[in-house]
Amino acid sequence: MESATIATTILFHPLTAEQPARQQSTQELSTVRSALIHSTQPDVDDSSDEEPIDIDEADSSDEHADEKENTPPSSSWSRTCSSVVCPPLSVPSGPQLPVHHLASEMDFFQQMLTLQTIETIASNTTAYAHSKGMSDTWKTSAEEMWLFIAVHIYMGIVPLPRAPMYWEDAWLQVFVANAFSRNRFQELLRFFHIAPPSPPASRHTVLDKVAPLITACQHSFSSYFSPVQVLVVDEAMVAFKGRESMKQYIRSKPTRWGYKVWCVASDNYLLNFDVYRGRQKRKCDNTSIHDTVVQLVQPYSRRGHVLFVDNLFTSPALFDHLERIGIRACGTLRPGRKGLPPDLKATGKQLGKGERASWQRGNLSCLAWMDRRLVYFLTSHVGVDIMVSFDQQRGDNTMVTVTKPRVVHEYNLCRGGVDTVDQLRGNYSMGRKSMKNWPSLAWWLIDMCIVNAYRLFTLQTGRTVSQLEFRIALMEQLARANPPHPASRKPARSVKRGRPSQGHYPKHSDTKRDCAHCSEGRSHRVVSRIVCDHCEKHLCIDPCFRLYHEAL
User: Fold this and answer.
1) Terminal alpha carbon distance of the chain
2) Smallest Cα–Cα separation from 451: which of 225, 235, 226, 204?
3) Alpha-carbon distance 97 to 117, whole Å?
4) pLDDT tens digit string along 392-408?
5) Which end of the chain is flanked by fewer CB atoms within 10 Å, N or C?
């Protein structure tokens, strides 16, 4: 059996040999480190919030459909293991953008979220407003949509519980108030639409509502970055707790309720994604998860990539399929999968602390290893009997030398790609809470455009900036390039109304509208039939009529 010791200065080879050393700010390093810790703990630590790998998770996805997998017979496994050679990456990796055309943060962002997409959103927002009874003179533009996004970036950095608070005297935010009046912003928030309005006799699904943005993001994400050798497939959750059949519940995730999105990432960059639609009828023997993984990584076949997945995805059938299309794979394993060695469970239960057992079939190897608890691995990219030693920091700030199977060490290093990307998004996520079922997914996509633009910016320019600095610069550049229309602006300081100089008297109206005083800035609205004959404002007769006209 082959064995080796790898020094701490070289994590592993050849998976990261093509990646240059890069520096990040203290904040971003902390974010990446916490994401990696969160992603690697479930498979090797008893304190994890994920169930042990021999216990099925309970959610509404297809993850238990592995019983229907068409796998080779388990009798072909052997306890004699040989070395496995992983092909090197055959294509260059890194940003695929014209250097001389891109200089600012806004340039990189507009490569991810294009002007054509924004013009589509502006056009559909105007059409939706007209379908809801707004006059033909009401319209928005691409310039206003860019500014609308800039304000949402600001709100992600400076969050307040209710949108109207950004214009209130006690919480006034100059950047927001100078960009839009409160009423104009709420109108845009109400009519914001990605896809064309639904015809009166039909109903569109969540994916129909965001289809133009999904298509645009899938194209731009995959076009402007060539991945490094390591690929990671995992699931991300888009928070949503309203009524929707696509909504999922995963108890082991920080965001338990929401839309599930299958993602493939590389080097902290989101390459592609697919929104989970719920349990579907399949036309072949493979599982839905199997097909999803193959579809996500298909564009990167026969290039020498290595795919890392967790035990939700890992199966002999999937890894055999990936090897046939030129992609090696590595992942933790649930011992109940079909096609595994028949004595896998029995042998694993007999292992003591630090002991391991291994099997091999062609380039596919299986490992049972007792660490803090029993874990199983399946890999086709490296021999499972290779051991590595490295220094690791313990809780009392002491460094200890740890020896583990190489497959375990590399899995722990590479597994957190999607978690890191999603945590970068979560630090300053945009979007306001809405009763509609699709805006949360739309703002998640726009947030991912910013995260990918930030990653490309740091790689291509070589500048060391935090994501916060990138977002601040981006929103300021968007605001300067798209100044607000004078009619939609409000002075940064509040205007005193003072006492009326003319007679203001209440009168009865046949229509009911929100009280201009007690409904201002509240989620709960109060309606009144009393209107001021001079101001033409609906007001409660007592005490709002007096307080409104005497307010400073």
Assistant:
1) 83
2) 225
3) 19
4) 887 777 888 888 888 99
5) C
